[in-house]
Request: fold
Amino acid sequence: MRTAPVLALLALLLAGCSPFDETAERTLTATLSVGEPVSLPDDTLAVVELRALAEDGPVAAKASVALEDASLPLEVSLSVDPAHLDTQYRYGVRAALIIEDELRWLSELQPVNVRRAHIEAGEIRLDPFDPALLEGLVDGNGVQMEAEEAYFLCGDGLIIVERDADGAVLHIEESEYALSPARAGEEPGLIIHESEDGNARFEDAGATARYLIEGEAGPDCVRLM
Reply:
């Protein structure tokens, strides 16, 4: 009788039918690449985030790590708390490399299936980043600002700035601050948003930024996207 192989096959089939644990923490893995082997300078900051594909969708998970003696391709991993996932969204992963406090490499948002214990994102291809794409256009009448949602890594925290020609909203943790339309700062390329009461201020230099709340400066920021 060929009982043992049959039982083994049945066990595999039953394992494959096990229900997916929606509450278990998940791990996303990906390989960062620029298409060829590249050595990275020490203290390169690698940033990986999982966010909803919708234009105004939230960030579900993010991680950043300072690299030493690293090179591309580079395998990275990200822990995902399912409590931060919303079933109304589809999700994608994006990566960036920040070198000497400047965003140098950035990937497109790549869709992934988050309904797995081990989320395999595969190769994430990064492209050179042009800082000129982020600079406000300044003329004699002030700053011409198009609508955008910008993400900044400030210390270990992520802040979001939503803005258009009429003003901006600064999101920091659970707080929101309504800010004025952009105006040109004294330094070339610097744009500034302020609250009416003067308690909040955001200064955007393109690849970097800084902010003040109630007169206290937050950590220096680098732009992610």
